[in-house]
Specification:
Jelly Rolls, five-stranded mixed beta sheet, four-stranded mixed beta sheet, 13 strands, elongated
Length: about 140
């Protein structure tokens, strides 16, 4: 016995199960083959798979303020310091990660009048980490 219900068809306004002689209608899903480089979109067209290999640069910023760059993982192991963020404008979708493994307070400082995590400055405390993304206007969590 199958655990799946039988496909149904509509005949003269009644819903009936398909018999072995019936053919289930097929749909044209476009031409192509799904593989590691293409996939079938919901609109029936084929698209290439976009690789999102991102490489990060680790920075031990302990001992002073740090001017952050796109794609950095910034760690503070002691002291209270600031991370000065680059402009979010023109960097939509880009990311910066900051972690505080020390006992001090790390202040995230936005570029000019932009915001970082909803404010012009934002503090992270011991054992806290944030991944911040640019939305093209500000840095968001």
């Amino acid at each position: 016995m199958s655990v799946f219900p039988r496909p149904l068809k509509q005949v003269l306004g009644k819903i009936l199960p398909f018999s072995k002689e019936d053919k289930i209608p097929t749909f044209n899903l476009g031409e192509g083959t799904a593989d590691g480089t293409t996939y079938l979109r919901g609109d029936g067209s084929w698209s290439p798979v976009v690789s999102s290999s991102v490489s990060y640069t680790y920075v031990d910023a302990t001992g002073g303020n740090h001017n952050a760059s796109i794609g950095e993982i910034i760690e503070y192991t002691s002291g209270s310091n600031s991370v000065i963020f680059p402009t979010a404008v023109g960097n939509a979708g880009k990311e910066i990660k900051v972690t505080n493994t020390g006992t001090g307070v790390v202040t995230l400082d936005a570029f000019a009048a932009e915001n970082v995590a909803g404010s012009t400055t934002f503090d992270i405390y011991q054992d806290e980490s944030l991944e911040l993304y640019s939305n093209g206007t500000d840095w968001i969590i």
